[in-house]
Amino acid sequence: MHTRHSLHTIGVLIRFVCATWLVPILWLAPPADASAADKLTVYSGRAERLIKPVLGAFTAKTGIHIDLLSSGTTELVNRMKAEGDRSPADVFIANDAGNLETARTAGLLRPLSMREVEQAIPSQFRAGDNSWIGLSGRFWIIVYNTTMIKPDQIKSLLDLADPAWKGKLAIPNAGSEYLQAGVSVIRASLGDAVTKTFLERLRENAGTQVYQKSSQIVDAVAKGQVALGIVNHYYVYRHLAAQPTALLGVLMPDQQEGGMGTIMNVAGIGVLKHTPRIENAKLLVGFLVAQAGQKMFADLDKEYPLHPGAKADPVLPERNSFRAALVPLTKLAELREPTMLLIEQVGMR
Fold it and tell me: Interior CA angle at 243 toward 239 and 248, to 5°?
C-alpha cells in the first residue's frame, strides 16, 4: 500500500512539473505563419561585423527578422547553384560585382523593377535588368608606410613590378577575389602580355609576403615589415580609425595622363529568383539604396556610397579627385576564369 501511494504521489508531481514547464515553452513559440511572413534569409559574402549593424537597423525599422549566413562570396554562389530552388536564401549580398554577375548569368537572381533603385543607384553600378544592384564602391589602392616611401615614387600599380621593390611589397594570395577582380581589369585595360609580365614580377617582389587577409597587409605595412602593399582602400581607413597615429598613407594609382584609372569594384545585393518573400526582399533593397542606408554603409565600412546624394566619410579622398578605370563591372564575371588561369600559370601562391 505504501509503495502504491508513493508511486501515485510521484506521478502527480511529474505531471505538475511537466505542466508548469510546458506552458511557458508553448507560450514563447511564435506562430509558424508569422515567423515565415516576417523574416528574410540573407546569404552574405560580407564580414558579419560589417553587415549585421545595417541589417539590424532594417529589422528595427520594419520588424522583419534576418537569418544571416556569412561565408566567402564565391562559396555562396556555388552553394546557391547546388541548392537551386530549394535554397533557403531570399537575398544574396556580395562583396564583388563579378560574383553578382555570375549569380545573374546562372539564373539565380530575379530582375527588379523598382523606381527607388533607378533613382538612387547610377546605371553603371547595377546589372542591365537590375537583378543585382551595387550598394557601395571600393578602390584597389597602394598602402604605404610613410617613413619608408614618398608618395611621388609610385604612379601606377605597374610600378610595383620594378625590382627596386623586391622584399618590400605585400600582396593578396591567389585565391583573393580582390586580386582576381583587379587583375581582370588590368587584363581588359592593358592586355594579357603586359598583365602576365606584371604578375611574374609582382610575385618575385612579394616573395613570402603573401597574405590571406587584406587587414594583415595593412598591419604589416603599418609595422614597417614591408614598405607597401595592395588592398581595397577601406582596410586602411578602418585601421586608421582604430589607430589614428599609424604610419599609413594611401596612393590612388594610375591617375597619370593615359593611365587606366584606379580599379573599382562594388559590394551589392540581388534577390533570389525563387523567393516567396519578394515584398520583404524589396523592402530590404529599398532600405539599402536609400540615402539613409547608403550613409550607414559609408560611416560603418569606410566605403564610397553609390547614391549621388549620400556623402562618403570625410577622411576618404574626395570621389571627384580621382578617376576610376572604365572597364564595366558587368564584364568582371566573363573575365574571371581566364584571369584565374593566368594567375595559376604565373605560379602565384
Answer: 65
Q: Cell numbers at residue 329, please?
A: 563591372
Residue 48: how many CB atoms within 10 A of its CB? Answer: 13
The helix (H) or strand (E) run that includes residue 135 is strand 133-145
Predicted confidence (pLDDT) per residue in 285-333, tens digit:
999 999 999 988 788 889 999 999 999 999 999 999 999 999 999 999 9
Are 234 and 47 in contact by the 8 Å Cβ rule? The answer is no
- Residue type at position 218: V
Q: Report CA-CA distances (Å) from 19 to 5, 25, 30, 100, 330.
A: 21, 10, 19, 51, 60
Specify whether the CB–CB gap between 304 and 234 falls below 8 A. no
In the chain the first and final C-alpha atoms are separated, in Å, by: 81
Domains recognised in the chain with CATH numbers: 36-137+264-321 (3.40.190.10), 139-263+334-346 (3.40.190.10)
For 107: left if phi > 0, alpha if psi spans -120 to 50, otherwise beta; the answer is left
Residues in the chain: 349
| 55-83 residue pLDDT tens | 999 999 999 999 999 999 999 999 999 99
Residue 18 has pLDDT above 90, yes or no: no
